[in-house]
Amino acid sequence: MLTAVAGALASRYCSGKRPGASWVRGLRGKGARVADDRLGLIVEGSLVDGLSARLDGRQSIEDVRVGQFVRIVGKKHDYFCLVTDVRLDATNRDLLADPPQPADAFTLEVLAGTTAYGALAIQPMLMLARDGSDDASAQNGPLPVRTIPPHFAQVFTAVEGDFDRVFGEEADHRFEIGQPLDMDVPVRLDLTRFVERSNGVFGKSGTGKSFLTRLLLCGTILSGAATNLIFDMHNEYGSTSQSDGGYQVKGLAPLFGSRVQVYTLDRHSKTTNNGVIRFGLNEIEIEDIELLADELRLNATAVETAALCESRLGKDWMARLTDEGVSAAELNETVMAHEASIAALQRKLQMIRRLSFIEPHVSQKDSGLDLLIGALANKQHVVLEFGHHSNLLAYMLAANVITRRIHREWTRRIEESKQGRGQEPPQLMITIEEAHKFLNSRAADQTIFGTIARELRKYNVTLLVVDQRPSGIDDEVLSQIGTRITCALNDDKHIDAVLAGVSGAGHLRAILASLDSRQQAMILGHAVPMPMALRTRSYDQTFYEWVAQANSKRPAASTASTPWGRGPDPVAASLTPKRGYKDLFPNDD
Ligand SMILES: Nc1ncnc2c1ncn2[C@@H]1O[C@H](COP(=O)(O)OP(=O)(O)OP(=O)(O)O)[C@@H](O)[C@H]1O
Ligand SMILES: [Mg+2]
User: Fold this and answer.
1) How far apart, in whole angstroms, are the C-alpha atoms of residue 120 and residue 297?
2) How much is the mean pLDDT over the chain?
3) Which among 402, 314, 303 has a CA at the least distance from the CA of 358?
4) What is the pTM of this model?
5) Whose CA is nearest to atom 2 of ligand 1?
6) Partners of 72 in the beta sheet?
7) 244 lines ligand 1 (CB under 6 A)
8) Looking at ligand 1, which atom is closest to the CA of residue 519?
9) φ, ψ for residue 155 (rounded to 5)?
10) Are 213 and 466 in contact (CB under 8 A)?
11) pLDDT mean over 162-184
């Protein structure tokens, strides 16, 4: 019967030619037994241009979506691939010139998947040795693709097991960061690799950067991959805060108790904290003034005058320069610059002196900084809240001064440990927001953040930069960002910056452009084997419960009651630290 139908259709659509061998074969194929979940067969392609698959007749083209993951079964390898395009094709162009009528359901049914078929463009992303293979890659996990599967290799929709093979199975150092856009399987980030380099969370306002950052911080805290210092400009990482939607969002302290210390720069802060940080003008160096030039509205000449002041007035240069009792003329006797320039500088630097966490001179012991650095050295995570100081001047100044101190400490300790004196300090990840302000081309050459980004993890310090404007970050610094997690961006120059130096950027750009404007992101780089668009894991009650459960599996952290409900009272703990800064760094004066 089918042969008769095929003959009739052949005479209509294959007029005068060979009697439609391919679609007759196709009809026969319809009866053959194939795996239920098979999408189709590879028919042509190349490593450079990607592969083409013919969709099986039983599969609907409407069920295949661009961005979907598929597995191609080669003889020696499985290929983990991305569908980059879907297309309609026909073996006979006559069919397209004289298509069957929509009412002719029977003809449509017979032709669909045979003479007329769906085709998929597929980009191989990774290859994995087939089970039982003696290929060396069996031990090494996914490999970059360097070859392609043979003709007629079968294509399947990727399933959870495939994702596990690519992203690794559940483990302490693998953190579920989300799920692929149209599948309910976990995508895991390798946190050990994550903290090895500086990383970035990018996206326009309101896309979920802070939520994503909280997730990443929870992952690193739980796994112990790194100790965290968070410069929390908007007071959203330490204690409980309010989301855009007006509901309460837990910070890290309520989730992790005494493992997270919250300090504040705001002496009037009403949030529960472990101590108030203040520091003296004596901590401020010319590097800070250079960084703050825009915020202080200083031109290049004013910055040069400040540098002269620093070199000629000595250690207390900032205190003297901003002392209202000292005139510009008096100062100029020592500085020997332009008196009017000094007077202008004096006025502008008052903006710093007026910050309530700045005092003329604060000894290291009294500043609270020692306690903060001691906590980090003791592997306690620290959130520094800015309270009402949520302006860039306060944020950049405090972050730069504190990070410089920490970096000096970490560098010294690493050098000493190399000489066999003492242990290395712990791996530290410093989270900063508005990163382009610290890492733009001008600042990156001068600031401590540029140094950290460039020297990788040489001194056990890396950055987690959070930013809406990645194109504002220096190219060289961006190229050192190991893992980039990017939410929706609507400016081409920011998308270009995030994808700079990434192979296959063309199709990644299309995926990035199609992300929803909330709670979706594309992850690429060092901590994942391949770029992947995902729905970010929800940071909500279910996640809090998961954290509580994971916490309870850890060896005996204290469970006594605290202002946040877990661990010892952090305020009391900070007043009587078990190991203070001096215990940890006895040689430091
Ligand atoms: N992973 C998530 N879990 C739960 N809610 C989320 C998540 N990601 C985003 N949201 C929702 O999106 C809103 C905006 O997220 P978020 O505050 O992180 O944006 P943002 O990119 O940091 O914005 P801004 O640049 O203004 O700081 C949140 O208030 C929350 O409602
Ligand atoms: Mg935010």
Assistant:
1) 56
2) 84
3) 402
4) 0.83
5) 538
6) 79, 155
7) yes
8) 8
9) -115, 130
10) yes
11) 90
29-76 confidence digits (pLDDT tens): 444 455 667 999 999 999 989 999 999 988 888 888 888 899 999 999
Query: Is the model's pLDDT at 21 over the cut of 70?
Result: no
| Residue 234 CA to its chain's centroid (Å) | 19
Query: How far apart are the C-alpha atoms of 466 and 470, rounded to whole Å?
Result: 9
- Is the pLDDT confidence value at 138 over 60? no
For ion ligand 2, residues whose CB falls within 5 Å: 209-210
Ligand 1 atom nearest the C-alpha of 213 is: 18
* Ligand 1 pocket, residue 520 CB under 6 Å: no
Identify the residue whose C-alpha is closest to ligand 1 atom 18.
Answer: 208
Q: Is 178 in the pocket of ligand 1 (CB under 6 A)?
A: no
Specify the higher pLDDT residue, 256 or 314: 256
Q: What percent of the chain has pLDDT over 70?
A: 85
State how far the alpha carbon of 256 is from the alpha carbons of 172, 232, 276, in Å: 16, 17, 20
Contact 201, 194 (CB under 8 A): no
Could you tell which of 231, 236, 243, 539 is best to mutate to test the pocket of ligand 1, judged by most ligand atoms within 8 Å of the CB? 243
For a pocket test of ligand 1, which of 177, 210, 213, 249 has the largest count of ligand atoms closer than 8 A to its C-beta?
210
pLDDT digits (tens, 9 = 90+) for 365-387: 777 888 899 999 999 999 999 99
Identify the band that residue 142 occupies on the pLDDT scale cut at 50, 70 and 90: confident
Strands 381-385 and 260-264: parallel
Q: Which two tokens stand for residue 215?
A: 């997730």
pLDDT of residue 576: 33
